[in-house]
Write a structure and sequence with these properties.
This protein is an alpha+beta fold and about 600 residues long. Helix content is about 55%, strand content about 10%. The strands form three sheets. Strands 4-5-11-7-6 form a five-stranded mixed beta barrel.
Amino acid sequence: MPSYKAPLEDVSFLLNDVFQIDRYNNLPGFSDASADVREAILAEAAKLTEEVLQPLNRIGDLEGCTRHDDGRVTTPKGFKEAFKQLAEGGWLGLSAPAEYGGQGLPVTLSQTVAEFQCSANMAFAMYGGLTMGATAALMVHGKPEQKNMFVPKMVAGQWTGTMNLTEPQCGTDLGLLRTKAVKQADGSYKISGTKIFISAGEHDLAENIIHLVLARIEGAPAGIKGVSLFVVPKVLVNADGSLGAPNGVTCGSIEHKMGIHGNSTCVMNYDAATGWLIGEENKGMQGMFVMMNEARLGVAVQGLAQSEVAYQNAAAYAKDRLQGRSLTGPKAPDKPADPIIVHPDVRRALLTVRAFNEAARAMVVWTALKSDVAHRSDNAKDREAADDHMGLMTPILKGVLTDVGFSNAVLAQQVFGGHGYIAEWGMEQFVRDARIAMIYEGANGIQALDLVGRKLPRGGGRAVMAFFGEVAAFAKDHGADDAMQPYIAPLSTALGHLQQATTWLMQNALAKPDNAGAGATDYMQLFGLVTFGYMWARMVKVAQDKIAGGDKTPYLSSKLVTGRFFMERMLPETSLHLARIQSGSDTTMELPAEAF
């Protein structure tokens, strides 16, 4: 059976040493998250995820969710009790504002807790994650009365939330949606239509579900410019906050899907359901983008989380499984064979996954800190720089972490050989669960197009130039340090590849947009590798300094080795991506459609 241990030591190293989170104590909420408080919160989060959520992961996969004839949905055994424990522990409101019942702690801390939850039980974690995304949209764009009515109970876990975008005929192109909204005399709207692929759309974990729904008001302009956002509760709420009559929204069916069986992915039918406009008419995407960006960061964490739990189980198996002898002679002569951890190819697989996990976790923490600055700083310049970073990194995080997270789940599964294909070991569930993260909240090809088409030119390229400058400055500052040379030299080369790719796209994409489309995914992956390289260089520098100061622990020594492995075996792939980008789009687009 699979197991999971929260990576507390790695998280502590990132928060305390690499990013020195206490430097941000001037921001609201950070002074409340002192080192001892962080340690206590993360230890409790680890305990909850390891002892409560992880044992339910296989149960959720085997049982799935059940839709009853009356439209009710029940979740797998143990989910309801676990969600109650999550809610009563205040975990849903860790970073929510205190005025709505939250604890107001840094998003950086809640993102770390989210990784633990997703590693332990990704399907379960989605119920709370979607709720927090919905509250974020309401807090930014909702009217005061909407915030007061819905947000506190969502933060408390009494109610949950969803996002309703996709319809049978439209996914990415939301301008094609048909769900309609008819304005009523009292200012409310009647919402009618069908939404599909709605995660957590119906369940028995909370007494009410608050749906955020995209719909088109009668007479609105065609396309995306005519889309509005509405809040539509499953159960209507009386003026005093008590629950009233059921609303006209029901679960028509549960999708039969590859993974995340413990989460109810629903077809939702809206039959003149009562809803209220969020924000302005025909400006629905502004509100939904708040939730979508929250969700994209959450999905990026899912990619990392599945890679981490898959790695942990593969590493444990490799140290225990006896098979063959070491190429350099027996390492366990008292046993009939050596453990497979002695074989170079097994170590290659494990180090590939590990090197990604540690760099990706650093990237998540780095970006979460920027989110905190963007939303909490009183310095306009700092907020702008942090917002630039968020805009640039969100598609990279979502696309690269989920692409590689899935690949790593497969790679870890391979370590098990035939046992990896058998359900009892849990590896095949990690593969199936990880696969969806590449698809929802904008398929990864869309993330790549967003990066190249929107995020690079945004603000005249201000964000990407700031990134180039930061990495180049780090390389210059440490370029004369002999101990850093194995890390700085490859990073500088990779940064040069990214700069060449950026220049090529600028010179060749405007006149021929297909060049941007054909190279977008390679550019996103190239950018991700350089970012990981920068994270590794920063982590290694801190580890070297700590070792020089007498802190010679196996953990820090392993950082240096794993970082070198990344620089030698993984970062050189930037040259491959550059070559693909510079090949252009001619062969990609040459065949006529009927030839496929």
